[in-house]
Amino acid sequence: MRSVFYKLFMGSALLCLSVILLTACGNTPDQPPLAVTLHAQDIKFDLTTIEAKVNQPVNLTYINEGSIDHTLAIPDLIDEQKIRPGQSAEFTFTPKHTGQFKFVCTLPGHEMAGMVGTLTVEP
User: Fold this and answer.
1) Structural contact between residues 74 and 45, judged by C-beta atoms closer than 8 angstroms
2) Which residues, 6 or more positions from 24, have their beta carbon under 8 angstroms from its beta carbon?
C-alpha cells in the first residue's frame, strides 16, 4: 500500500514542478487572445469601444461593408491600411501598456463623420 501512495505523491510533485517551471519560463500566455471583428459601413463603425488587457494578443478582423474605400489605424499598434469595399484585413497586436487608443478611418472627413472609436487597455 505504501508504494501506491509514494507513486501518487511523486507523480503529484512532478506535475506541480512542471507547472511551476513552465510558468517561470514564460511558456504560458499572460492573457487569452481576444478576437474582435470591426465592420466599416458608410460612414460609421459598428463598434466604438473595444476593451483589452495588457499583454493580451488581439486578433482584429476589419471588414469594409461600405461602398467606398476605408482605412484603419490605431497609433502605436496598427499602421494605416486602406481596405476597399467588400474586402477585409486581419491585424494582430499585443498592447504592452495601459491606456486609451483611438482607432480611426483616416480618409478625409471620415473621422468627423463618426468613423472613430476607443480601444481601452487595462491592467
Assistant:
1) no
2) none
CA dihedral 9, 15, 19, 21 (to 10 degrees): 90
Kindly list the distances between the CA atom of residue 54 and the CA atoms of 30, 33, 83, 104, 122, in Å, as whole numbers in the listed order: 8, 11, 27, 21, 6
Cell, residue 36: 474582435
pLDDT in tens, 62-114: 999 999 999 999 999 999 999 999 999 999 999 999 999 999 999 999 999 99
